Amino acid sequence: MKNGKRIEEKIINFVKKYDLVKKNQKILIALSGGPDSVFALNFFRKFQKKYQIQISAIHINHQLRGKESDEDQLFCRKLCERLNIDFYSQLVNVKEYSEKEKKSIEEAARELRYKSLNKVAGEIKADKIVTAHNKNDNAETILLNLFKGTGIAGLKGIPISRENLIRPILIVTRDEVLEYLHLHNLEYRIDSSNENTDFERNYIRNKIIPLIKEKINPALENTIFHNSEIIRSTQANLKLFVGELIKEYVTVNKDITEINLQVVKKYGHEILGDLLLEISNKYFPKTFNFLDIEKVRNLISKQTGKSEFITSNIEVFRERNSLVLKKTGKNIFEPIILKVGVHISIGKLKFSIKKADKVNLSFNKNNKIEYISADDLSDKFILRKWEPGDKFIPLGLNHFKKISDFLSEEKIHSFQKKSQLVLLNNERIIYVVGKRIDNRVKITEDTKEIYALCLN
Fold first, then answer.
1. What is the pLDDT, as a whole number, of residue 177?
2. For residue 352, how many other CB atoms are within 10 A of its CB?
3. Cβ-contact 278, 239 below 8 angstroms
4. String of b and e for 95-119 (b: at least 16 CB within 10 Å)?
5. Contacts of 204 (CB under 8 A, 6+ apart)
């Protein structure tokens, strides 16, 4: 039984080191019926008085193995009855969710599992949820992340704790768990799908890791765990540093995120990857991948106005001194035919054309109202986005200028250029909305009729 005591001491010290469990907490244990979760359940049952906690268990039936799944649930319920532990169960349809959300079976099962865990934890007011991941799971996760190119964050491995989730047996290997169960004659269930190497994790577990342990490092799980602890500490410090850089060099305004390129000049191109990963975790629905980061890095060497699309319909623009990340979504704008006296709303923009009295004109400097001569205009106007090749004669000039050149000279950001509107009459641009009217419609002493172009 010495080995059993040693294994228990490892977990007790691990729980203490990371302050995973506190006195009087209510702990909900995720119980699949497999060796790891049965071990975790028995460990906390044995040391319940030491920690002065309440424990309960939950089983998630994924309905993936027919009768075998139902037998797992029955086993868990009977085990909890025998140990006098409150038991809860949840039924989830992984296959249906996988097809609906277009996700792999593994990913769908994981999402539904954690949704169910948090749901029941909330209902019973549990303080912590225990999931029984071990050192082998950690090694598999790190290798999987390494092969998929998740960067340094993925090499941290499985988090020891995150919000209300704790993983107290992450310090022991699968062999230690099995040894303990054997020493104490504890029964458990075997998931037959763990042998299916069509699943990525199973392939790493059953094919790749055994070869590495045989040919290179028999203590692979321990080595990877120690490295992951070092990386976790390093990454925590890096996260703090990058957080300070974000405060200094990144501006966030609703769906626009702007990175001042002074950060690259000062700290080098290498910092951009860590900066983008932290920005994506903080402000965007999905973490940027390696390809996204390379696209953004390459954009720095391109001319102002160039852009790239990356994950989650985000367009990144190269500006003069910055990179701008903008959530694109659906941004289709069809030309609108306008009549004098009609008000229209386009998102937050409100626009109207009104007749004005030449005697009572009120000029201001904020471009909210522009007055134009209506003498040579028809009563039909068209409002649309500007197009390549569009040109007009800006007020104060006597020659044509391309809209693209005009916007650049006005120092309009590239991402804003795309949505710039122009107003046409008689097939010619008479107003770059919010910026400048055409010189040909300026008011003169001979002007008889005037229109007010109003922005709100």
1. 97
2. 16
3. yes
4. eebbeeeeeebeebbebbbeebbbe
5. 140, 143, 144
Positions in the chain whose pLDDT score sits under 50: none
Q: Which two tokens stand for residue 43?
A: 């460990």
Collapse the DSSP code of 452 into the 3-class scheme (helix H, G, I; strand E, B; otherwise coil) and give the result: strand
What does the pLDDT read at residue 330?
56
**Token pair for residue 270?**
């290498």
Q: Where do the domains of the chain lie, and which CATH numbers do they carry?
A: 2-228 (3.40.50.620), 254-327 (3.30.465), 336-455 (3.50.40.10)
Interatomic CA distance for residues 120 and 28, integer angstroms:
9
User: For residue 204, what are the CA distances in angstroms to 31, 161, 168, 216?
Assistant: 24, 24, 23, 15
The model's pLDDT over 405-447, given as tens digits with 9 standing for 90+, comes to 999 898 888 878 888 899 999 999 999 999 999 999 999 989 9
How many Cβ atoms are within 10 Å of 68's Cβ, its own excluded?
Answer: 13
User: The tokens 């954690």 sit on which residue?
Assistant: 114
Q: How is the chain split among helix, strand and coil, in percent rounded to 5?
A: 45, 20, 35
Cα-based distances in Å from 157 to 21, 152, 154, 166, 197: 21, 10, 6, 14, 21
Alpha carbon distance 157, 141 (integer Å): 6
Pairing assessment for the beta strands 428-432 and 421-425 based on DSSP bridges: antiparallel
What pLDDT does residue 106 have?
A: 85
**How many CB atoms sit inside 10 A of residue 85's CB?**
18
Q: Within 13 A of 426's CA, how many CA atoms are on the CB side? A: 9
User: Smallest Cα–Cα separation from 118: which of 62, 63, 165, 69?
Assistant: 165
Q: Quick one: residue 269, left, alpha or beta (phi over 0 = left, psi -120 to 50 = alpha)?
A: alpha
Q: E strand or H helix at 155, and its extent? A: none
Q: What is the pTM of this model?
A: 0.66
Tell me, what's the pLDDT at 285?
A: 80
Report the distance separating Cα 154 and Cα 33, nearest Å. 28
* 3 state DSSP class of 88: strand
Distance CA 314, CA 10 (A): 46
State residue 255's pLDDT score.
Answer: 79
Whose tokens are 């852009």? That residue is: 307
Residues 284, 348, 413, 312: what is their CA dihedral angle, to the nearest 10 degrees? 20
Q: CA-to-CA distance for 222 and 252, rounded, in angstroms? A: 42
Q: Provide the sign of the torsion angle of the four alpha carbons 109, 111, 112, 115, taken in this order.
A: positive
What span, in angstroms and rounded, lies between the C-alpha atoms of 415 and 428?
A: 25
